[in-house]
Amino acid sequence: MIQRIQSVWLLVASVLSFLTLKVSFYSGTFLPDNQYHQLNGTDNILLMITTIALGVVTLLTIFLYKTRIIQLRLCIIGIVLDLLLIYLYFRAIQNYSQGTFSITAVAHLLILIALIFSARGINKDEKLIKDSDRLR
Questions:
Q1: pTM for the model
Q2: From CA 14, how far away is CA 114, in angstroms rounded?
Q3: CA distance 82 to 80
Q4: Are 108 and 71 spatial neighbours (Cβ–Cβ below 8 Å)?
Q5: What whole-number distance in Å separates Cα of residue 109 and Cα of residue 82?
Q6: Which residues are bridge partners to 35 per DSSP?
Q7: For 15-38, how does the pLDDT look when each residue is reduced to its tens digit (9 = 90+)?
Q8: Among the listed residues 20, 76, 75, the one whose alpha carbon sits nearest the alpha carbon of residue 44
Q9: How many degrees, rounded to 5, is the angle at CA 46 between CA 8 and CA 72?
Q10: What is the side-by-side order of every strand in the sheet holding 96-101?
Q11: CA torsion angle for 119, 123, 124, 130 (degrees, to 10)?
């Protein structure tokens, strides 16, 4: 299970997605109360649900190594969830008058890259299995 490189990429994506619940994505002055806030995955219920769903999907995908088609589909769902999460973060930033992105905002880009690499690895395995079945 963990011998395959895509399992390592999925584990990295899962760990990073659960870490984004606590680390800051954006820091600045929040408009409704004009106080300094840090935006992370637990500030908004929609952000929290999407972040937890992304972490669970990527963690679950690791253990589906025998069904590569389902694993590939869940990996694509994870990519879509991460893109949705990035969109939700940028929509939440509109409530800030000024601020800066945190260095840990790069974690979402790393999650996206890890999911793309794992999807490529799963696709390579599927092609290898199909080619070996064709040779029999």
A1: 0.90
A2: 9
A3: 5
A4: no
A5: 9
A6: 30
A7: 999 999 999 999 988 888 888 888
A8: 20
A9: 30
A10: 35-39, 26-30, 96-101
A11: 160
